[in-house]
Amino acid sequence: MTMLRKATFAALAAPLVLALAACGSGNDETAADVAGDPIDPVAAPEGQQWMEVAVETEEGGYRIGNPDAPLKLLEFASLTCPHCADFAEEARAGIDAYVNDGTVSYELRNQIHDPLDLTMSMLTRCGTVESFHPLSNQVWDNLQEIVGAVQANPEALNKAVQAPAEQRYEKIAEAAGLLDFFAARGISRDQAKECLAQPEMAEQIVEESNTQSEEMDVTGTPTFFLNGRKLDGNTWAAIEADLQQAGAR
Predict the structure, then answer these.
(1) How sure is the predictor about 23, in pLDDT bands with cuts at 50, 70 and 90?
(2) Helix pair angle (143-152, 154-161), 10° resolution
(3) In terms of C-beta density within 10 A (0-12 exposed, 13-18 middle, 19 or more buried), how is residue 12 classed?
(4) What does each C-alpha distance from 229 to 71, 212, 224, 233 come to in angstroms?
(5) pTM for the complete prediction?
(6) Neighbouring residues of 56: CB distance < 8 A, sequence distance ≥ 6
(7) What per-residue confidence (pLDDT) applies to 32?
């Protein structure tokens, strides 16, 4: 078995009870040695807002904002992590404002915790690069309902996980009600099924998650980096303080 296949198997072999141990609790510590003068706003291209400028990065993340922003915020997050959902709700308006100023870019990368997490990470990639962040936010906004549907029928999800790789993720999505959930948000059932019938996509997502988590010492979610420096805090109050100390206003 190759290392890539081992990594995928490890993610799928995780307990179907959501991996909350890897989902860190809120931490208000801030980085005291990050400081800078106020950074002037940067105008977006004519007819656009920086929030509308999105790219998939070489590392497999999705970044929005000015590609040359002086402050580059990176978040590792899990779609089944309640603390990530809390952060997304608390931070959304603030991050949007800093990104639209052109002073901050915001990249989101998935850390995979369980089979449901992996399946939803695949589905958030089924649309355009611009739809990745909105779809991820939709998952977090409705996480309690999604998890409740899974917990109401654990046998179906356990059976789905055992299916052949080409069918596994569609069956997980069906068992969790995700095909209808994403169809209501612009990803048709046929489009979703086509994405989910790509086990090589799942392998790549898991490999990126495992490799980068190890290399960058990401032991839980959400975890943040600012200009490559790992931050101590993981609440919006802490992250905004770091951004402001670095020059965002």
Answers:
(1) confident
(2) 90
(3) buried
(4) 11, 14, 8, 12
(5) 0.90
(6) 62, 63, 129, 132
(7) 43
